[in-house]
Amino acid sequence: MLTIGGISKSFGGRTLFEDVSLQVNREDRIGLVGPNGAGKTTLFSMILQIEEPDAGKINFEKNIKVGFLPQESAPVGDETILELATAISDEIVDLKKKIKAWDTAHPDDLEHHDDNLHARFSELGGFQLEAKAKKILVGLGFREKDFDRPAKELSGGWVMRGHLARLLVQEPDLLMLDEPTNHLDLEVLLWFQEYLKGYPGGILMISHDREFLNQLVGSIIEIRQSKLVRYRGNYEDFLLQREAAEVQLLAAYNNQQREIAHLMDFVDRFRAKNTKATQAQSKLKQIERMEKIEAPVNTDKKISFSFPQPQRSGLKVITLKNIDHAYGPNVVYRGMDFSAERDERVVLVGPNGAGKSTLLKLVAGVMPVQSGEYILGHNVKAGYYSQYRIEMLQASRTVFEEACDTPQRMTEESIRTLLGCFLFRGDDIYKPVSVLSGGEKSRLALVKLLLDPPNLLLMDEPTTHLDMPSIDALVEALKQFQGTLVFISHDVYFIRALANRVVHVNAGRLTHYSGDYQYYLDKTFATSARAALTAGAKVAEPETAKSVERSANKEQKRLDAEERNARSKVKRELQQLVTRLEKEIHELEQRQVELTADLEKPETYEAPGAAMKVNRELTHVTETLETVTAQWETEATKLHDFGN
Which residues pair with 80 in a beta bridge? Predict the structure, then answer.
């Protein structure tokens, strides 16, 4: 499908690629990895023919379609989200406009209509396009009322989801993704991950999400020392294979160096002697003929730095007692208890909308408690990372000036090292804050937080916009951190590296697991480390908070029984509705197939007005099918939620 043959590419005297080759076949799932600046984006640009290689060729099979999702926001015009998702080709867009104009035209103008429009639109699958797009948009988190909103009214992250929907509707033969999970929340990420498992084409992706790569790819291509090195398996397999290869390479390099040293020792001792000069020259030629093994370079060597540590707090860092909290009529917590002690690393997990972010804000003190007790421990200073992202930075300063603005005394070298860990390298440190992207501002705020950390650190998705080396650097920094950490994350690697306690949040109740993330997985019999982050139901008897214990009284049991009965009734009604909608969808789909077949018959166009009549009925059936399908999706989702 794609063949890269012997390409080379240099920028400003620096060689990114030197005589590299690659074969990508249909249904390949490939992860492209390498340190920042290694050339991942440049390789994508050459495949997309945005840039030309200095030497070598990039060839595609005939009629191969390539789709690309960039890391940064792609442009939009005046189209709606649904129009964006269905704009899979210029021909489709043009046909839709012509058919729409014809359908709304005056009957006197119809004599000039080309009857082949509908046949061609049907041939391209146009009549099924919107239904497919709506299903994908729902999977990506859009609501039905968002479909007709102009895309330019939405944030950059939602626009990227719209472009992603367009690619999934289009189904190109080769799907190229650059950090596709950056703009997705966890539940959408899980949907997207499952969708890609059944994707019919090949996938080439750049991602810093280890778990995403582990779930999807069948091989990893690493950019290393201007070469492309391919490893079979997922990201964890790649790490193991590369480590073994590095051990072998180091052994081979050391053996060759010993052999060269032995030969040179002979040359040095005997080159001046007439009787041995010929042999000495022979040894020199033997060294010259050797294919030299390059010294192995560990590009993943962990960056070592130290930063100021906060003042030591008391043992009891934060205590929330009998907390009630609601947003208007929506009750999030009633009688909730939470506490954290010095040096704990607490991760909050649970379904979206369960109250994790609300709990983090309550602990941070950025959201006042409405009822109950908020007790901050002795010498405790809280810092909330989501708040820092937007409030810590001054637009008029440079990156370096912002990093230096800390009450702690740090050397310039230490500050530069820390900035480098978070992708501010070279002249980047002299950029004004005002021109930084959202991701760059997040990384700079993270640097400032590490340079003057509080002893109670609250972090909401701290790994967003970080590449793998930066995540490693953050992990190492937080391992050094001598304080208490409470955080939310969907990065399983990050959680495994840090958490020593898990709190599951669901329906206003906290369930406590006094162990690391693996302990939580074992206790809940989870089958997926990532899916367990949003799991709602518990299947094991865990350690519970006092609020859960208090709820086990007789009155609560009675209320629970009433709630179960009410839910059962609603579930039965939902089941009946879903069954009826499924039957209606089946009938509409059958009629749609029949009408589409009629449009493809020549005799349909022989009788005056017959094609128009069939087309109008097809349009009505298609619109009805889309409406009923959307209703089915809504009701089926409700039914599924009842099952969970």
Answer: 150
Q: Are 369 and 334 in contact (CB under 8 A)?
A: no
Beta carbons of 32 and 166 less than 8 angstroms apart = no
Q: How far is CA 135 from the centre of its chain?
A: 20
| Best CA proximity match to 303, nearest among 443, 451, 472 | 472
Write the pLDDT tens digit of every residue in 56-65. Answer: 999 999 989 9
Would you list the DSSP string of 133-148? HHHHHHHTT--GGGTT
SS3 397: coil
Token digits for 381?
Answer: 């200073």
- Angle subtended at Cα 535 by Cα 533 and Cα 539, rounded to the nearest 5 degrees: 120
pLDDT single digits (tens) 256-306: 898 888 888 888 887 777 777 788 888 888 888 888 887 776 655 555 566
The one-letter code for the residue type at 127 is F
Would you state the torsion angle of the CA atoms of residues 464, 469, 470, 476, taken in this order, to the nearest 10 degrees? 120
Question: For the segment 213-237, what is each residue's pLDDT rounded down to a tens digit?
Answer: 999 999 999 998 889 999 999 999 9
| Element holding 10 (H helix, E strand) | strand 2-11
- Burial (CB count within 10 angstroms: exposed 0-12, middle 13-18, buried 19+), residue 571: middle
CA distance 175 to 120: 25
Residues 233-250: pLDDT tens digits?
Answer: 999 999 899 888 888 888
How distant, in Å, are the alpha carbons of 385, 459, 484 from that of 487? 9, 5, 10
Contact in structure between 508 and 355 (CB atoms under 8 Å): yes
**Lookup: tokens for 311:** 């003042």
What pTM, to 2 d.p., does this model score?
Answer: 0.67
Residue 337's contacts (CB-CB under 8 Å, 6 or more residues apart) are 320, 321, 322, 323, 510, 545, 546, 547
Q: Return the amino acid letter for 561.
A: A
Mean pLDDT over the full length of the chain: 83
User: How far lies 420's CA from each of 48, 58, 427, 450, 470, in Å?
Assistant: 30, 34, 11, 13, 9
Question: Bridge partners of 60?
Answer: 2
pLDDT at 512: 93
- Give dist(CA 617, CA 612) in Å, integer: 9
Q: Residue 288 contacts by C-beta under 8 Å, 6 or more apart in sequence?
A: none
Select from 390, 389, 393 the least CA-distant residue to 403.
393
Residue with tokens 């390949």: 28
